[in-house]
Amino acid sequence: MAPRQAKGPKKFSELGCVSEQTLAVLTSQGFLTTTPVQEATIPLFCGHKDVAVDACTGSGKTLAFIVPVVERLRRLEEPLKAQQVGAIIISPTRELAKQIHGVAEPFVASVPHLTAMLLVGGTNGVGCCPQRRRHQQRRGGRGDGEAGAVHGARGALLCTDLAARGLDIPDVHWIVQIDPPQDPSAFVHRVGRTARMGRAGSALVFLLPGEESYVEFLRLRKVPLSEGTPLPPTEGPAVAPAAADAADADDDPPTTAPAKARSSNPASTSAAAAVAADAAACTSTSTPDVLRALRSAAERDRDVMEKAAKAFVTYIRGYKEHHCKFIFRLQDLNIGRLASGLGLLRLPKMPDLKRPAGMEHFIPSRLDPATVPYKDKAREKQRQQALLVRQQEAAARGSAGAKSALAERRKAQAAIDAAQAEARLPAAKRRKLQQIDEDASLNSEYSHSRDPSPRRHRRRTIAVVAQQLPTLLFFGSDQTRGPIVRQGVVSSAFILGTLDRAEGFGGIDTKAKWLKL
């Protein structure tokens, strides 16, 4: 029995549900055969079936619904009337909507009296919530980058996960991931920007030694990876040939000015030398040279310094929020090398970095970051003005604080002096003064708690603390005598009770007497 031969991809003309007009558009676009997704779904769509498709990126899903939608509109028994909508295609992002519209236009144009319109939130007046609108406007620059990548002959497009979906840039040869995505499901979407529609492409991801288990994790999710060849060494010549030629030329005296003019402005000369050294480092393959150039740029321009610090903080937070926390552990990340690689002058203070690892690889700059100016003179002027305002406010607060502290010290000293003066009085005099203070305190407490309503029953709650003395005072009130103090002999240390009338309270010695205050 002859071995069964594998079936090849089916042509669009073999599906039996695609019109000649649509086949002509497909041929003009270079689509002759179907992908597995298109072969399985187009006949179902054309047969008025509800279909849900879940396929990897670059598998041809767009044509899988564009072709049947156009075919069903083409076969309507009655043509659509003016302002009548035949189909609505909804996409999650503006870029994907533009892509679908671009693919659908030539097919829609093949149907008489049928047009396609693109409606995007933020540009066509379509209502949306403010948060969604901000999200759409934030994506505004992505279209420009996509257009440049599409029309450019060659180059590299630096992007975030914002470009992981919805971009269809032809002939992308490499996808390089400096770091794995926070969400592992985004890994497939990232690499899906290459090898689209049967084209070839490659993807590369960098992993640290402690992150190698991520390979096995992806393998279990049916995303196999293979280890690549080692990277070339990064310890090349410190100065590129072009920079060396420039340095040699700089050693000769200038031909357009006297030799002594070279030292008339040392600051300008040193700044020019630093810029030349940075340019040489940028063309060098030596890691130390590049790191020195980054540190030097941050020490001369506050904008570079702040962006480096912001990149560091963003990286740390992103690494901490990785979904695979058991693989990407922040406590194992070499913070020192990361800080050095970004050219930081100081390590930003972050609560997440209590015990950063690898700090032996980071040497803080001797330059105080507060003294680094902006290269932009207008921004530096604004910064200096803001510093002056803050200094004036701090001085004002310091003056007010000093006055308050002086008043507190004087008050404390007066209290000490009064206590010392009282200590020098005879014992009888001190007891008399103490009794006066206690009586005044009782009257004050009573006046705050007195019920102003004459109709309300005058029921007072009393509390007595014995303070280890056989004789103690009860205080309360009645309707005729006003504030009173009752002196009696009791045995308990703490009594709580109520006084309905001035003449009665259970458990008090009958020899007690009333004292009018």
From TrEMBL:
Taxonomic lineage from the root: Eukaryota, Viridiplantae, Chlorophyta, core chlorophytes, Chlorophyceae
Entry keywords, A to Z: ATP-binding, Helicase, Hydrolase, Nucleotide-binding, RNA-binding
Positions of the Helicase C-terminal domain: 68-239
Residues spanning the signal sequence: none
Sequence segments annotated as region (Disordered): 226-267, 426-458
Ranges of residues in domain Helicase ATP-binding: 42-107
Enzyme class: hydrolase
UniProt cross-references to InterPro entries, sorted A to Z: DEAD/DEAH_box_helicase_dom, Helicase_ATP-bd, Helicase_C-like, P-loop_NTPase, SPB4-like_CTE
Compositionally biased region (Low complexity): 237-246, 257-267
A Pfam family recorded for this sequence: DEAD
Domains as described in the record: The Q motif is unique to and characteristic of the DEAD box family of RNA helicases and controls ATP binding and hydrolysis.
Similarity-based family: Belongs to the DEAD box helicase family.
SUPFAM superfamilies: P-loop containing nucleoside triphosphate hydrolases
Reactions performed catalytically: ATP + H2O = ADP + phosphate + H(+)
UniProt function note: RNA helicase.
EC number assigned by the record: 3.6.4.13
Protein name: ATP-dependent RNA helicase
Claim: RNA-binding is one of the keywords in the record: yes
Keyword Transcription tagged: no
